[in-house]
Design a protein that fits this description.
- By secondary structure, this protein is mainly beta.
- The protein is built from one helix and seven strands; from the N terminus they run ββαβββββ.
- The protein has a single domain, classed as Ubiquitin-like (UB roll) (Roll), CATH 3.10.20.
- It is 7% helix and 27% strand.
- It has a five-stranded mixed beta sheet, with helices on one face. Strands 3-4 form a two-stranded antiparallel ribbon.
- Strand 3 and strand 4 form a beta hairpin.
- The longest helix is centred in the middle third of the chain and has 7 residues.
- The structure holds FE2/S2 (inorganic) cluster.
- The site of FE2/S2 (inorganic) cluster has 13 residues, from loops.
Length: 101
């Protein structure tokens, strides 16, 4: 996981809330776009592909590519379509093969 980010927060007036990503505590701006906040916090990758394990990060930021999938409180969701809320527990989605059922 990266520790520095190439992205900067422009509006620092929003209240920050505590969320966890892969067990690491983060202070993100409440109500802001989750994908943008995770990128600004230096989180990478968001997930890995099920077949090759290749790292993936947000690409389109508009709900089309699904490269931003994360697991939030046990439910797999698109980070770019989700607002930051206090207490979110976020992790990389578990790899699931179709023949695992
Ligand atoms: S970044 Fe493409 S769906 Fe979220």
């Amino acid at each position: 996981m990266k520790t520095a980010s190439d992205y900067r927060i422009l509006d620092e007036t929003r209240q920050r809330v505590t969320v966890r990503f892969e067990g690491n505590e983060l202070l993100l701006r409440e109500g802001e776009n989750l994908a943008a906040e995770l990128l600004a916090a230096g989180i990478a990758p968001f997930r890995r592909t099920p077949v090759s394990g290749a790292p993936r990060n947000p690409f389109c930021m508009m709900g089309a590519c699904f490269d931003c999938l994360v697991e939030i409180d046990g439910v797999t969701r698109q980070a770019c379509m989700t607002e930051v809320a206090d207490g979110m527990v976020i992790s990389m989605p578990a790899s699931r093969r179709t023949d695992d059922a």
